[in-house]
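Design a sequence for this backbone.
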């Protein structure tokens, strides 16, 4: 019999990836078709913000999600895996302002919205094409979060929550970004270290005339000071309680009070309470019912309450006030200080706390219920991140301010009925449409509720997270009649894959929104991934110059190789580093797979009339172990374990050892094996190859598909990944594997040292471990050994491996 490979090409060519992408598109391979007889999984894909070309770490994250989607398809699931863009909110507005050198408030609203859409369209198309080149099997939904389709759902949920009294409007202290001129939620505040000064300033006690020293990093808030406080356990200042302090430089009179939040070891132990330096000030003012004196305007300048400092911005006021204090002899000293300040998550401007009128979503009263929801009804992988979410919930101090004084976002669906006295009554329309109150005519049901007043549309928009936090609804095809599976899958069959960096935003807001809307979690499963870093382990940023583009490695090594790195380096929940070496390993692995498949394809595929030898049963027992390990990991949304397990098994066990051992029986040129034993070799080769290809297909979809198409004329991605075959579960045979591998290495090492080629016979008797006795015939054929005995020799011998052991007697 002539053994000619059916896989004709001698080497895997990465240019085939482009051909396969075209075929997948033509075949509609990954279009969503709901088969009611199958289970369904919805993947709540993170909608990326198209604010620039993505780096390789970001694309790797999406590739990992794609691997999960591909796996569940091959396990018989309907998989809804949408890809669309998150196009609302501050990020695009800030980018447009910077790109065009404009201020949002200085151009017509329609013009600014047009510039935002143009900017987003350009970068969204680029992101989609890059992810597709990496093998993304998603359904591209062009309608992102700024579409009427999506915004209609956002407004529908707002109206639902409003009608149930869960949204309210109030004037209260709010975290505020002077640059973006909008309120921020707690989750939108980041922190950075900054060099500053701790300024020691003289205040005067009104009743005694004595000086007291207060230390502060924010002298610009002296005009906003409403009290001086000390710790009630600080005996130095107990005598001052109930007296009054005169605050420079405006000389306002404020009470001296005690409060346990004051740190006796900070500065002098006396602190000024201003409205508002930080959230601690806010707490003290609320608890002691102190007055509020807000001196900072929404644009970051000081107002008339700051006296002669009116019109200065915060930093200017700080310097001028320090100069005035020095000249008045009231500045005792300045100590350099490095401290942490709160900044806006998007533009990095230091935030202020000012009083504004905002819409709020109630959340504080539900904190205990939300914690129970996370603990009892959600599965977060890895589980330690559940505690991260719980800690965040417990730390919340405010209801969620959801209104924003910006343009590019979902409009708050409210009109105000304004009577002759100027009183405004908010009116919400019926759900089911997309409303733009700042522009559109009020609907009839709104007009009916304001027969004699004037209707004015709300011009504010909703926090971008108010949109993003219902992505799990949109992902179920909620607005798409041919796909809609919301009722079928919510919440038990929805997966949220995301990074740990947005646990307190996207994940938390999704949880609170789902609870308030349905009394349930938004999804049962959460897959938390780490960050893709550069080769030094640093985050990739333009400012650092360490951005790694996702396309050049694909052009050089292929998408399969890049995806292999994305899987094999990324332990679930942990950061992972870019590694060209590991991408190169992925490329070599693809070539190895091709070579293995080409060798196997030389033989006929048989499914009957075969006899399996102990060698076959050993590798099939190991294969079952590999299948179980891989399936278990995939089912936990982990691609790191399958990638490394399959690589090690395929290359270092199956190829390095089983293939070398089985060649003599597969060809059987010397006729030392029976025909049925030869057929057993053929069966085993195909069994292992097909199983490995299927298990690797989610991670390396190109080379596995090309091999399968070449052998079977159809796509591997339409095949099913089967459970382990229980016929091959056998610990006795599995226990032979490690001694078998150790024996091979001992023989190869000996031949190498002796200057023998691997095909040359060994002159002498080899003594092998007793456990390898069933493999005697195949070991002799594999290594050209004239005689093998089992056990320990007597007399003189050479030790080839002491741990097994393996001996040679000449």
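Sequence:
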């Amino acid at each position: 019999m002539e053994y000619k490979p059916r896989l004709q090409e001698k080497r895997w060519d990465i240019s085939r990836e482009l051909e396969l992408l075209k075929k997948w598109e033509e075949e509609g391979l990954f279009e969503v078709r709901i088969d009611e007889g199958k289970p369904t999984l919805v993947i709540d894909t993170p909608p990326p913000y198209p604010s620039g070309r993505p780096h390789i770490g970001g694309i790797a994250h999406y590739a990992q999600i794609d691997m999960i989607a591909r796996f569940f398809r091959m396990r018989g699931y309907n998989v809804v895996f949408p890809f669309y863009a998150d196009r609302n909110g501050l990020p695009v507005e800030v980018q447009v302002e910077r790109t065009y050198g404009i201020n949002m408030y200085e151009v017509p609203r329609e013009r600014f919205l047009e510039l935002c859409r143009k900017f987003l369209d350009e970068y969204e198309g680029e992101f989609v094409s890059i992810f597709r080149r990496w093998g993304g099997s998603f359904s591209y939904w062009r309608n992102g979060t700024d579409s009427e389709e999506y915004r209609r759902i956002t407004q529908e949920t707002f109206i639902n929550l409003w009608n149930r009294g869960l949204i309210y409007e109030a004037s209260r202290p709010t975290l505020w970004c002077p640059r973006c001129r909008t309120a921020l939620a707690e989750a939108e505040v980041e922190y950075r270290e900054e060099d500053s000064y701790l300024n020691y300033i003289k205040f005067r006690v009104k009743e005694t005339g004595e000086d007291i020293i207060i230390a502060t990093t924010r002298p610009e808030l002296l005009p906003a000071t409403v009290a001086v406080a000390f710790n009630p356990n600080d005996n130095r200042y107990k005598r001052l309680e109930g007296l009054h302090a005169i605050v420079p430089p405006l000389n306002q009179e404020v009470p001296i009070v005690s409060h346990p939040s004051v740190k006796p070891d900070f500065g002098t132990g006396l602190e000024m309470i201003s409205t508002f330096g930080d959230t601690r000030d806010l707490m003290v003012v609320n608890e002691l019912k102190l007055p509020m004196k807000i001196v900072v305007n929404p644009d970051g300048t000081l107002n008339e309450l700051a006296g002669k400092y009116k019109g200065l911005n915060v930093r200017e006021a700080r310097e001028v006030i320090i100069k005035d204090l020095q000249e008045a002899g009231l500045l005792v000293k300045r100590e350099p200080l490095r401290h942490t300040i709160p900044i806006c998550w998007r533009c990095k401007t230091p935030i202020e706390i000012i009083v504004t009128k905002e819409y709020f979503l109630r959340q504080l009263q539900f904190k205990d219920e939300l914690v129970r929801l996370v603990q009892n009804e959600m599965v977060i992988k890895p589980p330690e991140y559940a505690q991260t979410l719980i800690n965040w919930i417990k730390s919340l101090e405010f209801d969620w301010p959801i209104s924003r004084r910006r343009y590019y976002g979902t409009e708050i669906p409210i009109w105000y009925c304004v009577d002759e006295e100027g009183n405004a009554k908010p009116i919400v329309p019926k759900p089911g449409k997309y409303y733009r109150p700042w522009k559109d005519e009020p609907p009839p049901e709104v007009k009916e509720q304001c027969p004699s007043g004037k209707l004015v549309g709300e011009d504010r928009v909703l926090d971008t997270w108010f949109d993003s936090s219902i992505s799990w609804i949109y992902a179920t095809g909620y607005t798409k009649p041919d796909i809609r599976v919301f009722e079928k899958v919510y919440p038990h069959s929805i997966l949220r894959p995301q990074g740990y960096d947005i646990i307190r935003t996207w994940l938390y807001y999704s949880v609170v929104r789902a609870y308030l809307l349905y009394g349930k979690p938004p999804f049962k499963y959460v897959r938390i991934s780490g960050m893709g870093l550069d080769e030094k382990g640093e985050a990739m940023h333009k400012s650092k110059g360490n951005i790694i583009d996702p396309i050049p490695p694909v052009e050089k090594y292929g998408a399969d190789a890049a995806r292999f790195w994305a899987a094999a380096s990324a332990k679930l929940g942990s950061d992972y580093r870019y590694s060209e070496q590991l991408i190169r390993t992925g490329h070599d692995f693809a070539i190895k797979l091709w070579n293995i498949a080409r060798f196997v394809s030389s033989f006929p595929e048989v499914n009957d009339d075969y006899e399996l030898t102990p060698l076959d049963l050993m590798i099939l027992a190991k294969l079952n172990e590999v299948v179980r390990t891989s399936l278990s990991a995939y089912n936990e949304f982990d691609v790191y374990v399958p990638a490394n397990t399959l690589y090690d098994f395929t290359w270092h066990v199956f190829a390095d050892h089983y293939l070398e051992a089985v060649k003599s029986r597969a060809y059987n040129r010397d006729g030392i094996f029976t025909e049925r034993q030869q057929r057993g070799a053929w069966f085993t080769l195909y069994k292992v190859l097909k199983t490995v290809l299927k298990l690797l297909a989610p991670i390396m979809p190109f080379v596995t598909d090309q091999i399968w198409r070449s052998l079977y004329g159809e796509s591997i991605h339409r095949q099913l990944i089967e459970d382990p075959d229980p016929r091959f579960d056998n610990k006795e045979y599995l226990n032979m594997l490690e001694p078998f591998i150790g024996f091979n290495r001992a023989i190869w090492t000996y031949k190498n040292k002796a200057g023998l080629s691997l095909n040359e016979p060994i002159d002498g008797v080899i003594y092998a471990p007793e456990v390898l006795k069933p493999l005697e015939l195949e070991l002799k054929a594999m290594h050209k050994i004239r005689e093998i005995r089992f056990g320990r020799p007597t007399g003189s011998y050479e030790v080839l491996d002491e741990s097994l052991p393996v001996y040679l007697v000449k």
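The longest strand covers residues 189-205.
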